[in-house]
Amino acid sequence: MPPGGERFQKEVLQLDQRGRILAAMAELVAKRGYQGTTVEKIVKRAGVARVTFYEHFENREACLLAGFEDAVDESRRRITGAAESEESWPEQLRAGLTALLDYIVEEPALARTCLVESVTAGPAAAELYESALQSAADALRPGRKYADPDLALPAGMFMHVSVVLEERPAVLIPEQAVLAEGDGTFVFTVADGRAQRRQVRLGQREAGTVEVLDGLAAEEMVVRTGLQRLRDGVAVQVLNPPGRQPGEAVQSG
Description:
The chain is α+β, with helices and mostly antiparallel strands. The chain is built from seven helices and seven strands.
């Protein structure tokens, strides 16, 4: 082996481990949210030892921030590379946005982690998020000279853009209907007047709802409140008076 060969192999292995950890972090946060993602889940998903995680990152937050920073750097690289091939600013903008959207489609879990879930990860992540937005705003300022004064918008207005990455049938339930215990997630269904504890596998989260990938059928009813007091097999009564949603139940004995 040539001089430095062992060191080189170790550096390559470490880079691979770091990449696997960041990828696992993005996938888990996109599916479970930041608060539902633990170091234990990250290392299990990445296939590395816990000590390996701490060789690269101080804690869970540092891992998220590193992934976010890498994503911002990669976005800038792609946008700059695409824009350089165009001459006019409008064409540069079009090429840059196309490159950014292509990156989002290519890495949907990472995109959701950075654009949606990161703001729930604490002040440092929120600051990084705002910094990335400010950088984007600065890059758009040269376009003001192309603006039509008759179509000017008042200062301080914002635009919200929705990017549809995928469409598919899904089973959605309220987040409050999910009971997390250890590495598992559970719901209580109602059948024949009794509560049945069911383990489920969750997917995407949005606006107070969560997707159930496995363990629950679309037509099944779930209990939304009082989960901590409920036990498997306990008799329950479904309450559906006006003003209450189907699926709410109370323990009857």
